[in-house]
Design goal:
- The complex is a heterodimer of chains A (about 130) and B (about 140).
- Helix content of chain A is about 15%, strand content about 45%.
- Chain A is mainly β and about 130 residues long.
- A four-stranded mixed β-sheet of chain A has the order 1-7-5-4, with no helix packed on it. A four-stranded antiparallel β-sheet of chain A has the order 2-3-9-8, with no helix packed on it.
- Chain A starts with a helix and ends in a 15-residue tail after the last strand.
- The N terminus of chain A is likely disordered.
- Chain B is about 10% helix and about 40% strand.
- Chain B contains one helix and eight strands, in the order H-E-E-E-E-E-E-E-E.
- In chain B, a hairpin with a 3-residue loop joins strand 1 and strand 2.
- Chain B starts with 9 loop residues before the first helix and ends in a 12-residue tail after the last strand.
- The chains are: A mainly beta (about 130), B mainly beta (about 140).
- At the A-B interface, strand 2, strand 3 and strand 6 of A face helix 1, strand 1, strand 2 and strand 5 of B.
Chain lengths: ~130, ~140
């Protein structure tokens, strides 16, 4: 049974190289700050050049993904002289844990910085435990 | 940018990849531009040119544009400013990858830029500085009589 599974996997891998011939698009991993407080987790991501219309924030299963395309207006016939930024597609994803309320994720975008707020479910917010002195 | 549609940068990409591989092997190239800052510089800079102008793009998200100090002396462009990331007290931080603090970038532009004709705009975290070239160096159509 296990032999058969392995064989199938090998075949699937062999098919791949042909599909990879296509030039792979460069993806930028945006720099992020992530912190947690009592009520949830906040993510700040640097995505310069991305407008609201070209930004997608998705939760699929336990994965939160951000995907944005920068659009920078450039004059016609411009030739590159020097470039540190060589791709305009930003992508990054995070695995969430079950205590996070994925239905209440809030996203905002200002000056090229994306802010995500992922609240914890009510029952997971920390409760202070009093220590009784006996 | 410059991976943007319309630019064929494949040769450029290969050169850059080779350069990066060399850098990672020997701990940095032996020769770099005097004002280059390595790969961690903030803000990242792209420069493009047309026969009429030089366009500088600085990728500076989350910066208050009123605090930017942009200076062009002949063909040396200096952009200084600061980005203060507001840190929440009492929160536990898992990642702090974003640049926080003061920055200054200095770029040498082509020599025929006109320091009197510059404009700058800040949109979606990208600062675009447009500098016209001097009239005398712009391409001219010469009529044959």
């Amino acid at each position: 049974m296990s032999d058969k599974t392995e064989l199938t996997t090998t075949q699937a891998t062999e098919v791949q190289p042909a599909a990879e011939q296509k030039r792979v698009e460069q993806i930028v991993r945006p720099a992020v700050d992530i912190f947690e407080d009592d009520s949830g987790i906040t993510v700040h991501a640097d995505m310069p050049g991305v407008s609201k219309e070209r930004l997608a924030v998705k939760v699929e299963g336990d994965t939160l993904s951000i995907d944005g395309v920068a659009e920078i207006p450039m004059p016609e016939r411009m030739e590159p002289l020097y470039a540190e930024v060589r791709a305009t597609h930003y992508q990054r994803s995070f695995t969430l844990s079950p205590e996070m309320d994925v239905d209440k994720v809030e996203a905002s975008l200002k000056n090229g910085v994306l802010t995500l707020r992922i609240p914890k479910r009510e029952e997971h917010k920390p409760k202070k435990i009093e220590v009784k002195v006996g | 940018m410059f991976g943007f549609p319309g630019f064929d940068t494949s040769i450029f990409d290969d050169l850059l990849r080779i350069q990066r591989e060399m850098e990672s092997m020997v701990g940095g190239p032996l020769t770099t531009a005097i004002r280059s800052m390595g790969s961690v510089a903030f803000p990242a800079v792209n420069v493009g040119t047309t026969p009429e102008e030089v366009d500088v793009y600085l990728f500076a998200p989350g910066v208050d544009p009123t605090t930017l100090d942009i200076n062009l002396q002949n063909n040396v462009l200096t952009v200084a400013g600061e980005r203060r990331v507001i840190r929440e007290e009492g929160a536990s931080y898992y990642r702090k990858e974003r640049f926080n603090g003061e920055f200054r970038r200095v770029l040498t532009l082509p020599e025929d830029v006109d320091p009197d004709r510059v404009d700058a705009t800040y949109t979606e975290g990208v600062l675009h500085i447009r500098i016209e070239r001097k009239e005398s160096s712009k391409p001219r159509q010469i009529k044959v009589n």
